[in-house]
Design brief:
Blueprint lengths: L8 H29 L24 H5 L13 H9 L8 H4 L3 H4 L4 H9 L4 H22 L9 H11 L2 H9 L3 H16 L3 H14 L20 H26 L15 H14 L6 H22 L6 H15 L2 H4 L6 H4 L1 H10 L7 H6 L4 H7 L7 E5 L1 H6 E5 L7 E3 L2 E6 L3 E7 L5 E11 L4 E7 L7 E5 L4 E9 L2 E9 L15 E12 L2 H4 L2
Parallel strand pairs: 1-11
Antiparallel strand pairs: 2-5, 3-4, 4-11, 5-10, 6-9, 6-11, 7-8, 7-10
Helix pairs in contact: 3-6, 3-7, 6-7, 7-9, 7-10, 8-18, 9-20, 10-11, 11-12, 13-14, 14-15, 14-20, 15-18
Length: about 550
Amino acid sequence: MSAPEPQPRGGVLLRLLTARVRVAYLAAVALFIGCVAQFHHPDTGFSSLISIGDILDGTKVSALRAAPHHVYQGSAGYDGAYYVQLALHPTLDNPELTKAIDNLPYRARRILFSWTAWAFGLGQPAWIVQAHALLNVICWLGLAWVLLRWFPPDGWENFLRWAAVLFSHGVIMSVRHSLVDAPSLLLVALALRWLETGRGAAGGVTLALAGLGKETSLLAGAATDVSWRAPRTWPRVALRLGLIALPLLLWMGYVRWKFGPAEDPGLGNFTLPFTGYVEKLMVAIRDAFSPRASALNWMTLGAVIALSVQWIFFVLDRRPGDRWWRVGAAFALMMVFLSTPVWEGYPGAATRVLLPMTLAFNLLLPRGARWLPVLLAGNLTVAASFHEFSPPHDFHSVRGEVAAQAALRVTTGSGWHGPEHQGSNRWRWSGGRSELRLANTGAVPLRVVVQGRVNAAGAARRIRVSRGGSEGFLWADEVGERHTPLAFGFDLPPGETVLEFSTDQPAEKVGSDPRPLAYCVSNLEIVVTAVPRSRSAP
């Protein structure tokens, strides 16, 4: 028996490289799953991915109130809070929807993924909420698989392009807030895959479904082949495009019949050419180079630069015969007309609205080292994804003895603005009097030590902390703009104790922040231990 012939050194190196690239693909998926896992809570599941704010508490539909879900305090939430209520009543037959959802006729157009969440949740409200929260996660995994058609795991450049799409700010924002953008992108990618393989009927049906998920997905109908030199074929192409749009048109007719015309049909999202874009670019540059610029300001500027690079690519590298170029160009054209509501924010909604352009850019940009700077510049939105994908940690944390921690429940009471964070620092601003509720669920007192930092907005003021209903202060000090240490301790009896934070001066406006601000409490740490028996005995 002869010995096997030695393999060429190049073949061994190629297999080794491919193995490492595949590990990188798997590591990226594991990273995503790990990030999603941080949003799970034993009581509310993954519902913190929906971004439901307490400002909507008075108008939520009864089915959502009855289902366990995470609520962001001091926040109006985000659009996912409306879509989950549509999922709870997918036929739009509940009169509560008219008060629960702003501009219901407009939002109800995007019904496909609400139907999907209802089906996955088997019509049970608690399950529907969880299905809605995880639908984007499932679609992310599906998109990761579909993109392997164009970015197979056989080289680092494919990995960069594949990961740049999946971890783009638009995709991650959609996952983080349970929106319709990432699922719609999956359907657009599937439709283009069917069209490329000659399965026109499957591609058309998938595009029609994408339109029911988000109406702007119908721009991907530009992928339909048309011969401009053969006028006889034009009616057939028009009929095909009409059939793709028909399900959305029929559903919009049903919505109009139920609720009448929308007060705002979405036209406010569009304006004169480049007006919204130029405004956003100027604001992003100003914020990034201001003395108080944060990392998020620079990430926002990076996102605007990335979308600009993508747009310039489609303007300069014209390929009207390529399906993906036509799709990318259609969304690049839409970008020209996007108005302030789409651009505003940090980084803003434009990154998710233009996701098909981002995918087409990564597919069509020429390969090779000379194009690497353009590839990186066109995918700068990825930097903002890490900020977007932060779990909902509040400004306080608890540590100490295990048994004592299990007995303590801490909730943020009234008076605080929403939680904020940058890196490891977490804080809340207050407009004056604010509450922190500590509940001792055990039968014996606990020893609690509270420590953190506090600073004032503008002029110095006196900050005080007291126990509700008791005289005297647990802590009081004169506080200015610089951080002042905050530390005090007390014995916490069984039941609920309310800590009241207050100040001696009214709140004020600071810079362009529209909120009334008095003081900020940051990195509040609550250390809890059992009270020694000699002190707790009667």
